Amino acid sequence: MEYRQLGRTGIRVSEIGFGCEGMVEHPEWTRDFIDAMDEGGANFLDLYAPQPAFRTALGKALQGRRDRFVLQAHVCTVWKDGQYKRTRDIEEVRAGFADQLERLQTDHVEVGMIHYVDSLTDWQHVQDGPVMVYVQELKKEGRIGAVGLSSHNPEAALAAVHSGLIDVLMFSVNPCYDLQPGNENLELLWAPESYGHDLVNMDPQRQLLYETCQRLGVAITVMKAFGGGDLLRRDLSPAGVALTPFQCMSYALDRPGVASVMNGARTVEELKQNLAYEQAAAEERDYAAALASFPRISWHGHCMYCGHCAPCPQQIDVAAVTKFLNLARAQEHVPETVREHYAVLPHKASECIQCGICESRCPFDVPVRQNMAAAAALFEA
User: Fold this and answer.
1) C-alpha angle with apex 252: 248 to 256, nearest 5 degrees?
2) CA torsion angle for 182, 186, 191, 196 (degrees, to 10)?
3) 86-133 pLDDT, tens digit each
């Protein structure tokens, strides 16, 4: 298993994490799920669901190995009248989180995730109201290690990231959603009419969100990597092309700022199939050819960080250089963190001999030689 830094928190998480769908539907399988995660080295678990039976079963399954798992537990999600409810009522929020810690048989969780903020109005309400006061109180007391927020809307997510109040962003990332601008109507993310016209490149606000997270050290944990399963079926995919789970995971993990993909698995067998990503060949993970074949969609000239440009005869990590270049271009001044990351690369853009081999391999016609010259001028002048 590969592990990544969870942004500025310093926590190490498995790049393949999991949601709790299967455990919610079958609490009696919870120990089997946790056993499979433990065996496969997956240490990161998202707990969006407030169902009491699931929380209790998970608490029992974690006994004796709690320290081997990183829990991303949601605040503002409660169980009321026999069903899940999102709430901003501070008394319900407090009671729901206390119930969670008690049932999990723990005194803390690593990430306290403010649940489901999909509009600027809701973010402002959370930021300026008692929910944020409570979450900061939890962090100060050590009952949560880092503050997170889940969202599907890049506008609301950007505002939260820029506030400096959150350390982790749970966001929906996949190659179809990335084409669509932010909107509070989530149905539009996968509505057929949204893909009925020519689409070119990633929505700039989404790209800015990912790059801002990388620059500020806010970790992204990915939800909806498979688009709820739609991207895995040609007849349901908005792109008209089926992708594999490994391609979807690889795409998400290549985005700036991403620390882990939180896969949905409804059975233990599905969980094990997702864990097999770690042993998959590069050809199985490769999404570039599939994306390049999407009908009516073009990523022409846009670096997807897919690595097809490698190997470079000068051993330059072209994808990393391009990522740092794009991070810097979004700012008036080169961020010091970006400059430092560039500085430790073993081979710099100035070593490019302009042979053009990388460009001949690129499925997206990225002007790599031009980018190398720009990076050398920006970072090495």
Assistant:
1) 160
2) -10
3) 899 999 999 999 999 999 999 999 999 999 998 899 999 999 999 999
* pLDDT, tens only, 129-143: 999 999 999 999 999
Alpha helices of 218-363 — where are they, by DSSP H? 245-253, 268-275, 282-285, 288-292, 318-329, 336-343, 357-361
Task: Name the nearest CA neighbour of 132 among 91, 101, 90.
Answer: 90
| Whether the Cβ atoms of residue 108 and residue 137 lie closer than 8 Å to each other | no
Q: Could you give the domains of the chain?
A: 3-290 (3.20.20.100), 318-379 (no CATH)
| Exposure on the CB side of residue 134, measured as CA atoms within 13 A | 20
CA R_g for the chain: 21
Phi, psi of 62 (to 5 degrees): -85, -10
Report how far residue 204's alpha carbon sits from residue 180's, in angstroms, rounded to the nearest whole number. 9
SS3 4: strand
d(CA 376, CA 228): 41
